[in-house]
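Would you kindly consider the sequence and fold I have copied below?
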Amino acid sequence: MVYCLSAAPTVLWGDDAELQRIAITGEARAIGQSSAASHLLWQAVAMGFVRSTTRLPVDAAGLVTLGSSIAGALALVPIEASAGQIAVRAGFSLRSSDVAGVVAALAFGLSHTFWLLASRPDAYTIQTLLLATSLWVMLRAGFSARLILWWVAGLATVSLAMTNHVMILASVPGLAVLGMAGVRVRVGRTISTGIVGGTVLLGVVVSASILGFPAFQAVSTLLR
């Protein structure tokens, strides 16, 4: 509610206006450092949201911003859940963990930086939603009997985030460590498996970006 009430109501300027134009017209990006391959997931979600909410008493540019605000609000859910999970791991009671989760979500959600992102048309609220979801999934994976299932879910959210921005790759090592936190395995085998797996994943991503697969065009843009 806070994000929606404080969101920019209409057309902005600079990159914000460019993102609004893309979501409304579907045309390729024309200014800035990014290309038409930038933020593919955000483009798809924003365009779909604008087209499906035309009856709301907000102009088209404002609808783009509203979509960013909603994504920002949704991101606070896995942030709260992740903070609570971390508190449980630290030995706090469930009630204390719930309080920790709420405090963390409020502190993050009302911080100047994230509030600003959620009040403008921005691709990073969706990115935060996916990163926070990946964090929660891998926290659960570390102490779950269904390790493989949670890892698959984590891989899915990370892959989805890659179609929005490759910055998610910087979080992969930390997410992997969290996902193995409660698993007893041989250290040497874990390291070798991680190196091989990481090399294969990197090779697939780079090859796919060079070949021009749509889901990896953002990587190709970064490599230019």
Notes: The two ends are 40 Å apart (CA to CA).
